[in-house]
């Protein structure tokens, strides 16, 4: 598999063609995305027409865009014409508006209309990723009629496994699965065998909502309606899975103090990588200057007992770690729906108890070695600080993400790095207050 | 929706029954899992037989187990008998072996056999979550024959949308989708319309592998074979989605310095929560004692210029943040397959450049304010340390997860907290070496 880059480098056309023929579409796409743009174009142009389309659809928008730029116009048009409307909308969305407009105009009227419908929905809304081509049924149809209809129109639809049933005003009244249709008596009425209590989602809600529903309930496809309950599309499980992957990526990166790159890691330039990180670092440095101020405030204590400075990293690391643990736990529990805002006080109380318990254990563990090397009073200061810092860290680590969600901010933004910096400042104040009391400074 | 707990509390049976009738299965399960075990049992027993099974299948194993304990034996047996074999295997897996064995013996011979097959595969292997009941075809069958077969056996199979085709020795030779069957001429041969280049996975590989493949390729179902390519089951997309959710949860929690809880957050006891966290904290504290030793080593410098201690938190926080960013980015890129070990040097070189660029910016930003308050020499020390620490942090933050993966350790384990602690120690050494040089200590 790893030979592709070598084949391209050696311009071994025969070898390339063989490789492209023998490899799975999905593996081709994966290997292509690891090549430099020019090499990728060389290899892509060698694909048979049918495979080229299949590979193209699997690529990331950023690579699709680069490829289009390297192809001749008729080929571009052909590729775009054959794409699924939702994939096409996603691609157009990432292009400069003027180019997208020109390409849109090159499409056939039908495909242009389908794409325009999707692009009419707000970014990140369900409407953007649904399929506007679907087979819909009426309750009065017989199973036999339905099968005829599926045979006639099933080729264009993205799925035929979940078929929505509507009334004469196109309002969703139920769904029926192809499995039930196949197992049913051909003369049976759709209305009798359809499921009328169905999950559905509105086209203007955030994509994450229906995607999580589909994962939890294990749905292959979900009918999408407008605000009047009129059927406008169908969301399929593969698009839902992509949304969830992107959401999880976003959560993870934000928890690590980064913004999503919007493209594969190896395709992002150094400048782009630095840009997605520097803003966060800058914010965190500003926050961390509080620690300088706190220490400056207690400089006389540090001056009197230099030993106190030795434990600063240990204590703030511990606080940061306990805080990150709580934040990570709560952010994930909220993301998968285990915890809601109504659990706020319950969660705070639980984390307070866990934090205190952890602080007690860590404080006890720290006591003996510090006693041995630095004496009883310093050991008391360190242990007692560790207990207090752990408790406060667990408390704020769980509180901040929940409050963030409440005011409409992604909880992952208020996670590890932010909490670490916040807990540092509070932790240092506590440490010095305890030290001054115990040591009588 | 949120009335359930109130209805149970008031023992309002009529209200409860109405609520249980009007609510979707999936929502019932979600609300039930938020109740106390006894209340959950009260509400569950009021469900109609059919709905009880549907709700039971959606619950987490820990709640299933609690419910079983509260039900009478015939009901337990009935519930277990009707479960999907893979869900049942998962439940048995989490029970004490003696109880699982007793319950297994209560099953019908057929269901017992299916469950035993799944339980025979290693934990976390694909065999555990596949469905051993499937409709399989021969290439020589006509489409008409197939439809008859689907109608006869389709009720028991977990999916009929992707049908595996085997030879006479049960070796996988292709797949055909129900959609293609419905669209095909009834007299056509399966061999002519099946796809013979198919994705499949072996039953003994880690679940994550086929699950990621299914997400990337958008597959509804994947044939699972043994090492001789004999068909042994089918993995469906809903089980794949659950695996990926669990994997992402595991990655996130480990990145935050925790082990997975194995149950919903609110169902975990305080003791369990503390236990999943204390081991990590303990390891990190041991690691953090290096910082105490480093500072002890440089105590004379601290003694001479107490001002140096003011910047300790700022510098180690910055190092920790840059390091976590790199680690998070690389861990996720590896998890979704964008980066492999063969990219090791490329990634290190990129992160080194990004780290240096970030360090340069942050060092420049820090210079002026420190100059203003603490003078030129301290400002030089802080800026230069910030540059060096950022570079090293980005470097080690990207290197460690890749090396971890290489030696078979989950990269997420070597992430934020570990890297923070490591970078702290290195960072402090660098800081003091620079300080001693610039300040001539």
Structural account:
The structure is a homodimer of 441-residue chains. In chain A, 66% of the residues lie in helices and 6% in strands. The first copy, chain A, has helices at residues 4-9, 13-22, 25-32, 37-45, 49-58, 61-70, 73-82, 85-94, 97-105, 109-119, 143-153, 178-183, 190-193, 208-217, 237-255, 270-297, 299-304, 307-310, 312-335, 344-374, 376-406, 416-439, and strands spanning 137-138, 162-166, 172-177, 201-202, 221-225, 231-236. A 3-stranded mixed sheet of chain A has the order 1-2-3. In chain A, a hairpin with a 5-residue loop joins strand 5 (221-225) and strand 6 (231-236). Chains A and B meet through helix 11, helix 12, helix 14, helix 15 and helix 16 of A and helix 11, helix 12, helix 14, helix 15 and helix 16 of B.
Brief characterization of the structure:
Two copies of one chain form a homodimer. With 441 residues, chain A is mainly alpha-helical.
Largest interface comes to: A-B, 110 and 110 residues
Tally of alpha and pi helices of chain A: 22
CA(first)-CA(last) distance of chain A: 68 Å
Q: Level of helix content of chain A?
A: 55-70%
Q: Outline of chain A, from the CA principal axes?
A: elongated
What's the order of the H and E elements of chain A?
Answer: HHHHHHHHHHEHEEHHEHEEHHHHHHHH
Mean pLDDT of chain A: 90
**CA gyration radius of chain A, whole angstroms:** 29 Å
**Beta content of chain A:** 5-15%
User: Which structural class do the helices and strands of chain A define?
Assistant: mainly alpha
Based on DSSP secondary structure assignment, what is the total number of beta strands of chain A? Answer: 6
Main sheet specs of chain A: 3 strands, mixed
The oligomeric state of the chains shown is homodimer
Query: Uncertain segments of chain A of ≥5 residues (pLDDT<50)?
Result: none
Sheet with the most strands: spatial strand order of chain A: 1-2-3
């Amino acid at each position: 598999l790893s030979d592709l880059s070598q084949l391209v480098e050696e311009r071994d056309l025969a070898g390339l063609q063989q490789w492209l023929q023998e490899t799975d579409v999905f593996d081709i796409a994966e290997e292509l995305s690891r090549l430099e743009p020019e090499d990728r174009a060389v290899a892509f142009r060698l694909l048979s027409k049918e495979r080229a389309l299949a590979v193209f659809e699997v690529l990331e928008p950023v690579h699709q865009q680069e490829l289009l730029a390297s192809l001749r116009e008729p080929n571009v048009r052909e590729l775009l014409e054959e794409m699924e409307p939702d994939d096409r909308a996603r691609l157009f969305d990432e292009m400069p508006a003027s180019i997208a407009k020109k390409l849109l105009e090159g499409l056939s009227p039908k495909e242009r209309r389908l794409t325009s419908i999707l692009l009419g929905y707000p970014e990140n809304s369900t409407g953007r990723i649904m399929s506007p081509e679907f087979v819909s049924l009426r309750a009065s149809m017989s199973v036999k009629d339905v099968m005829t209809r599926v045979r006639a129109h099933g080729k264009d639809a993205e799925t035929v496994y979940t078929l929505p049933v509507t009334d004469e005003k196109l309002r969703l009244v139920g769904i029926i699965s192809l499995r039930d249709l196949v197992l049913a008596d051909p003369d049976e009425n759709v209305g009798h065998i359809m499921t009328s209590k169905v999950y559905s989602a509105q086209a203007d809600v955030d994509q994450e909502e229906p995607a999580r529903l589909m994962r939890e309930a294990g749905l292959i496809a979900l009918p999408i309606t407008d605000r009047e309950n009129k059927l406008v599309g169908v969301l399929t499980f593969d698009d839902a899975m992509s949304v969830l992957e992107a959401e999880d990526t976003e959560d993870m990166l934000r928890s690590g103090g980064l913004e999503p790159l919007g493209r594969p890691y190896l395709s992002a330039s150094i400048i782009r990588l630095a840009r997605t990180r520097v803003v966060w670092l800058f914010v965190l440095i500003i926050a961390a200057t509080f620690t300088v101020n706190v220490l400056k405030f207690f400089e006389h204590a540090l001056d009197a007992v230099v030993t106190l400075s030795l434990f600063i990293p240990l204590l703030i690391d511990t606080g940061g770690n306990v805080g990150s643990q709580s934040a990570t736990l709560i952010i994930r529990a909220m993301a998968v729906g285990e915890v809601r805002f109504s659990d706020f006080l319950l969660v705070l109380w639980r984390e307070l108890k866990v934090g205190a318990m952890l602080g007690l254990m860590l404080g006890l563990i720290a006591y003996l070695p510090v006693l041995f090397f630095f004496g009883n009073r310093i050991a008391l200061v360190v242990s007692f600080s560790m207990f207090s810092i752990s408790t406060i860290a667990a408390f704020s680590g769980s509180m901040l993400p929940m409050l963030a969600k409440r005011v409409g901010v992604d909880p992952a933004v208020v996670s590890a790095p932010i909490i670490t910096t916040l807990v540092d400042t509070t932790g240092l104040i506590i440490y010095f207050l305890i030290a001054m009391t115990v040591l009588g400074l």
